């Protein structure tokens, strides 16, 4: 897929991976719609890229619909918004851990459903998952791990149907990425926990993997895993 000239929506684009993806898309000539709840940060990113900012809380279906409607002629959607605020399941109350599931999985499902209807001329959708959802290792936030695993499974399950509509759905699954939120998480860890964290992956590298998936016409259903300190692979 040729990125130049495409209308691209990136959720959670005010910082971290989302900002890096928005920057990379803009550098390739896409018209980027920066979506985030952080209005100040999102406007700064959009201004720097010559793009457009839309305030969108991905937990609110009506705001997701307004976001997709605002991106008339949508060709690219990157479902990046996510996170896992403490406390974690099973110590967290149901309302709290349910919100993490909604933020990391349900919001991407709603945005994708809306985008499939909006991409009349075809397009590409990329899910940003996490190594937390890959494999069977323990994780300090089980609800986050389960949601990210869900994104990977959603990618494979949905891809054939989406292809019949001319839309490719794929997924990138990074390890710890050097972002402000990860830095905050590391600061909250014990010395023992920090010692077990591998070398951080750069947000720019993940952004380039996202662009590779968008460009590659054979990427439907593909999940790219980028572990820290290792080569990217497809499980």
N-to-C CA distance: 23 Å
Q: What percent strand?
A: 15-25%
DSSP summary: helix tally: 8
Give average pLDDT, whole number: 94
β-strand number: 7
Overall shape: globular
Largest sheet: 7 strands, parallel
Rg on CA atoms, Å: 17 Å
Can you write the helix and strand succession as a string? EHEHEHEHEHEHHHE
Instruction: For the largest sheet, list the strands in their spatial order.
Output: 3-2-1-4-5-6-7
Helix content range? 40-55%
The low-confidence parts are none
Class of secondary structure makeup: alpha/beta
Please provide a written account of the structure.
The protein is an alpha/beta fold and 235 residues long. It is built from 8 helices and 7 strands; from the N terminus they run βαβαβαβαβαβαααβ. The protein has a 7-stranded parallel β-sheet with strand order 3-2-1-4-5-6-7, sandwiched between helices. β2, α2 and β3 form a beta-alpha-beta unit. It is globular.
Write the topology of this structure.
Blueprint lengths: L6 E5 L4 H12 L3 E6 L2 H11 L2 E4 L5 H10 L3 E6 L14 H25 L4 E6 L13 H23 L2 E8 L5 H9 L2 H5 L7 H13 L7 E4 L9
Parallel strand pairs: 1-2, 1-4, 2-3, 4-5, 5-6, 6-7
List keywords for this structure.
single chain; 235 residues; alpha/beta; 7-stranded parallel β-sheet; globular
Question: What's the short story on this structure?
Answer:
The protein has 235 residues and is α/β, with parallel strands linked by helices. Helices cover 46% and strands 17% of the residues.
